[in-house]
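Priority: medium. Attachment 1 of 2:
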């Protein structure tokens, strides 16, 4: 498939955990990135991983709480989210086809999933 496919969203109380999963686009060349879009705010980069080398980068706001990983077959990318806060609420998207700019910039990606909703209540 061309578009990534996300799963694993849901509702959780503050302090809880969720794990999101992404099946990247067919033929994804390297980086797979998770973005999120809180209500009435801009889409922001959360974490990215090189599926070839396993190199990861995180937004400062999730450092130490979220972990991005891939399976050995490189067919799935996960976002393990812990110590969730209400400000983590939003639609989470998996993006591939990074072609330019900083990894956090959504304009630099060609392919997007439909998104999965994460809601954290206080």
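Attachment 2 of 2:
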């Amino acid at each position: 498939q061309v578009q990534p496919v996300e799963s694993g969203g849901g509702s959780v109380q503050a302090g809880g955990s969720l794990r999101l999963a992404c099946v990247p686009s067919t033929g994804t060349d390297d980086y797979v990135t998770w973005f999120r879009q809180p209500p009435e705010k801009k889409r922001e980069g959360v974490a990215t991983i090189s599926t070839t080398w396993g190199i990861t980068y995180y937004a400062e706001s999730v450092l130490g709480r979220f972990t991005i990983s891939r399976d050995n077959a490189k067919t799935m990318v996960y976002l393990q989210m812990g110590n969730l806060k209400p400000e983590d609420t939003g639609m989470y998207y998996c993006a591939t086809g990074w072609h330019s700019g900083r990894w956090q910039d959504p304009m630099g990606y060609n392919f997007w999933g439909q998104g999965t909703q994460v809601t954290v209540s206080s």
